[in-house]
Design a protein that fits this description.
single chain; about 210 residues; elongated
């Protein structure tokens, strides 16, 4: 698809809106930015379809609440969650609710552009969730039982130490299983591995 790509930046930090906006405009994207989730939801009905960069920690409405409001309104734009360091459990909840990707601030240009490429790929391919789930199940079936256990723990937002304790193995062994399962799944980032896990309904407890 060759038409211009629209990015909506929703972040209460002006410096992030400015720097991400500049980075994206110079990479050929069209950008609109909003200082809060409330401001974005006010405009979203008339907003040009595109990808949403959504900060997790904002006053009034946090990113998860904005994401929920978008779901309730049937807004199907792909969401990339922006998190601060240590917000991994929130990011995982956002991915369970349908976010395409999460990236930690401060983010590098290559990471941001990679996440946006994945988001637009999903937008272009969003009419076939059944095939995605089947593909994910096939990928996960190639993992050993212990690797699936580790992936399930990661999908539940658990740190390596907790997964190790629950499985009765050392944190180092969890790291080895984690590295192996990511190689087998053909992914480079935790969020890519989690997307496969959620597509196959791996992980417990809902959100």
């Amino acid at each position: 698809m060759t038409e211009r790509r629209m990015i909506h930046i929703v972040d209460d930090e002006e410096s992030i809106r400015r720097s991400a906006g500049f980075m994206l405009k110079t990479s050929g994207f069209t950008v609109a930015s909003y200082p809060s989730g409330v401001a974005f939801l006010r405009e979203v009905r008339h907003a040009e379809p595109g990808c949403i960069l959504l900060d997790v920690r904002m006053p009034d409405m946090d990113g998860l609440e904005v994401q929920q409001a978008l779901l309730e309104r049937g807004v199907a734009m792909p969401v990339i969650i922006l998190t601060g360091h240590g917000d991994i459990s929130i990011a995982i909840r956002a991915m369970k609710a349908g976010a395409v990707e999460f990236i930690e601030k401060p983010f590098e240009k290559a990471v941001l552009l990679g996440a946006i490429a994945a988001a637009f790929e999903q937008l272009d391919d969003s009419d076939n969730p059944v095939a995605r789930a089947a593909d994910a199940a096939v990928l996960i079936s190639a993992l050993t039982g212990r690797e699936q256990d580790v992936l399930r723990g990661l999908a539940d937002g658990l740190p390596n130490k907790t997964i190790a304790y629950d499985l009765g193995i050392s944190p180092r062994t969890v790291e080895v299983h984690r590295a192996n399962l990511m190689t087998k799944l053909g992914v480079r980032s935790l969020s890519d591995a989690l997307r496969i896990a959620f597509a196959a309904n791996l992980g417990s407890h809902g959100s």
